[in-house]
Amino acid sequence: MNEIIIHHYPASPVSEKIRTGMGLKKLAWRSVEHNRLPDRPELFAMTGGYRRIPVMQIGADIYCDTQCILRELERRVPSPTFFPNKDAGLPFALSRWSDGPMFELAFRVAFAPVVDRLPPALVTDRTRLYLGAQGDLKKEAADLPHTLAQLRPQLGWLEACLVTGHHFMLGSEPGMPDLLAWYLVWFVRERYAAAREFLAEFPMLNAWAQRMQAIGHGTSTPMTPIEALAIAKAAEPATGEKTDAHDPQGLKPGMKVTIVPITHGGDQPIAGTVRAVDRDTIAVSREHADCGRVAVHFPRVGYRVTIC
C-alpha cells in the first residue's frame, strides 16, 4: 500500500479524530500541515477546491470527509478495527449527531468566549462555515450560558456510556464511537478556558479522556504540500470503475457531476466525472496540471450530487 498522507493542521479538532484513529490502528503516516485558512493551493489542485480539513491521500486517490476517511482506513487496515463490537452501522449513524448538532455546540463554546481575541479573518471564515451567513459569534458569546446548558447534558450522555465500568464508549476496546466523542471533548478541553471546571462533574469522562490521549497518533513524519502533490502526479488512481444498479440518481461512470456538502457554510461545488459509485461513497475523476489525474472520494450522506 502506498503511504497514507493526512492533510491537516494541528489545531483542527476534526483532524484530531483522524489522528487518533491512526493511533488506534497503530499506523505510520505522512503529515502534511496546511494553513488554518484557505487558500491551500496544492491541496485545492488535488481536491478541486474542497476547503475542509482533514483530507487523506493515498497515491492519486484523495479522500474527503472523515466519514470517507474512516471507512477507507477500515477497509485497507481492518485490524485493529474501528468496530470491536461488530457494530459498523451504529457509529456512522451516531456521527450525524456528533459531527452536526454537538460539534456546533462545541464550536460555540470554544470560539465565542474569545471572539474579540481571534483574527477577524478566522472568525469570519469559521462563523460562515459552521453557523451560516447570518451567524454572529459576538451574539453567541452573550448566549454562552444557554449553549453550555445544551452541551452539558449531551456530555452526560457520554458519561453514562462509561458508568457501567466500560473503559471505552461501547466496551473494553476503543472504536469509532470513541473517536466521535474524543474530538469534541478534545476541542472543548483545548479551547475553552473554563473547561476544567465545566467538565469536573464528569469523572468517568475525564478518566476516559486520559485513556484516549494515551492512544496517541501513530507514527507520523512530515511531508510538504509540494511533495504530496508530486506523489499524486507520479501515481494513477487505484479506484476502478464501479456502478450501483440501485442508485436512486442513476449515477454511472462517465457522467459529469458536481458535489457539495449539504450545509449552510457556502462551500463551492466540486466538479468531476463519476468514476465509482455505491450506496456509501462516490469517487469522481479530476485532472489538474499540477497533480495529473486523481480520484476524489466523498461520502453520499451529507453531500449533494448534481448531474451536469
TrEMBL record:
Keyword DNA damage (UniProt): no
SUPFAM superfamilies membership: GST C-terminal domain-like (SSF47616), Thioredoxin-like (SSF52833)
Sections of the chain in a coiled coil: none
Listed CDD domains: GST_C_family, GST_N_family
GO molecular function, one term: transferase activity
All residue ranges annotated as the GST N-terminal domain in the record: 2-81
Pfam families to which the protein is assigned, alphabetical: GST_C_2 (PF13410), GST_N_3 (PF13417)
UniProt keyword list: Transferase
Domain GST C-terminal: 100-241
InterPro entries given in the database record: Glutathione-S-Trfase_C-like, Glutathione-S-Trfase_C_sf, Glutathione_S-Trfase_N, Thioredoxin-like_sf
Name this polypeptide is given: Glutathione S-transferase
Organism: Sulfuriferula plumbiphila
